[in-house]
């Protein structure tokens, strides 16, 4: 879900427009998750539980039975994983760039040492020729 859509959903849920506009994505996601949890249908303790479609799923994977809420939760999770993936990819790009920089520095240092050794060798050859 884009930042724009996320902000629109939170404003629609009753959050102040000015507050939402100044809020970073991470906090928007947290607010939206809190909103989703608060809006889930509460079942009275005296009512017998009604089996839902996902009763055989682990607790974190269960569906609520409300298709709109389930879709919102799915979209939220998808968005959260997409954010995690982007962060991971950015971290990998950063690490790759750092490795390339280290490699470049090592190559430059190696080339400097090679040139220095070549100069020494040439100086020794000249010195040996002068002695002869």
Describe the fold and architecture.
The protein has helices spanning 3-12, 17-21, 25-39, 67-131. It is mainly alpha-helical and 132 residues long. The protein has two domains: 1-39, no CATH class; 66-132. The model has no long low-confidence stretch (mean pLDDT 81).
Brief account:
This protein has helices at 3-12, 17-21, 25-39, 67-131. It is mostly helical. The chain has 2 domains: 1-39, no CATH class; 66-132.
- Number of beta strands: 0
Radius of gyration: 31 Å
Q: What would you call the shape? A: rod-shaped
Described by strand count, sense and barrel closure, the largest sheet is:
none
Low-confidence stretches: none
The average pLDDT is 81
What count of structural domains? 2
Q: Beta-strand level of the residues, as a percent range? A: under 5%
The number of distinct helices, counting runs of at least 4 residues, comes to 4
Order of helices and strands: HHHH
Structural class: mainly alpha
Separation of termini? Answer: 81 Å
What's the helical proportion of residues?
over 70%
Core attributes:
single chain, 132 residues, mainly alpha, rod-shaped
Secondary-structure blueprint:
Layout: H1 3-12, H2 17-21, H3 25-39, H4 67-131
Helix pairs in contact: 1-3, 3-4
